[in-house]
Amino acid sequence: MNILQRRFRRFFLFITLLVGGVTMAAAAEDDYQLLGPQDVRCGITNFTYDGVLDGPRLVKPMSGKVGLFLCENQKIELASPDFEDGFILTRDYGKIKVRFAMSLSGTTFTLWMTPEQRKAMLKLRQH
Q1: What pLDDT, in 10s, does the model give residues 83-122?
Q2: Extents of the domains making up the chain
């Protein structure tokens, strides 16, 4: 088994990461779109994950837990605290696709949402 096939395990305590990215682009094979910094602003805290590689330096969380999920400075209620096959399960917004990115400077994450989810989350800015 080479290094690209090994599973990654990371534990982060009380760390909030902000969504990074440059533009919105369609994800292959589904209706999810990659969010950029001009889109919905979200953060994840107190999370653990066990994942597999899902592209160049991208890790898909297969299992683990989410402590807190915030978007537009508001707590998003989780349907389950567990990652499920690369998704965060929310009570009101459905499944949010998440991938972690590894680099020499640390770890960040990217989120993908459907156009409907993005529109609903943007309404949180008005409150």
Answers
A1: 999 999 999 999 999 998 877 787 788 999 999 999 999 9
A2: 7-126
DSSP letters along the chain, please? --GGGSPEEEEESS--EE---SS--BPTTSS-EE--TTS--EEEESEEEEEEE-STTEEEEEEEE-SEEEETTEEPPEEEEEEETTEEEETTTEEEEEEEEEETTEEEEEEEE-HHHHHHHHGGGG-
Q: Are 57 and 45 in contact (CB under 8 A)?
A: no
pLDDT tens, 40-72? Answer: 999 998 888 999 988 888 899 999 999 999 999
